[in-house]
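Quick note —
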Amino acid sequence: SFVIESDVAVPMRDGVVLRADVWRPQGKGRFPVLVYRTPYNRREAPRYYTTFRRAVERGYAVVIQDVRGRYGSDGEFVAYRQEGHDGYDTIEWAARQPWSNGAVGTFGLSYPGAVQWLAAMERPPHLKAMVPAMTFSTPRNFFTAGGVFDLSWMEWIWDNIAPDTRARKNLPGPKTGEEADAEWPHVAERLHTFLPLAELPDLKEVAPYYYDWLRHPPDDPWWEWCELRGKYSRVNAAVLNLSGWYDETYGPEGATTNFRGLVNARK
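Predicted structure written out below.
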């Protein structure tokens, strides 16, 4: 059996409070900490993955956190953009807790994989190891592919992001994942064929950042905030890069490019 603390406040450097559930072994000890940060509802994560329970059984404390502006956490969600600073602040917070021995690792796939790289690039001193799975090496092969904007972002926002945002801001439209899934077949063709892309009305209030992505071509220096290539010397943690061969275009490319980049940076 283990201890679960719910709705633990984790303050960020700008005063915004993110919330996490902390799972840890029974007893007074100090434990190595694993951090998992998600936009997909921290409460749901343990239903899909056994990693949390298994980690505690092996003597780790686990921090399961909603990223900024999602579910239990305060602030405004701007996809990927705030995860560097917020990830750094969360890792360093975890290292300071009385139940922590100061050694922090991170894990997760897809968005919870990307947040690890964005945080690692900020050089948190207590990050010892990370397992970013199914994630990218460059925005050029993530937001766009071969120079073409990736339309699958539209469905990602519709299904995964927009419902909680509508619920928080009291906007019209589906407010649960189930409602969004049911509605998608009725709107998909109109959304996918709407031109010009930048004037699609449906996501203007729920995801203004989507239109920022459209405004910046792949070679715009604006994207530097999420470029990993050329920056691997910033990361001193042990890294397990993981992907399936068919994890979108960016998954296998991200895992292999990031691995090679780390090897070259550590010669």
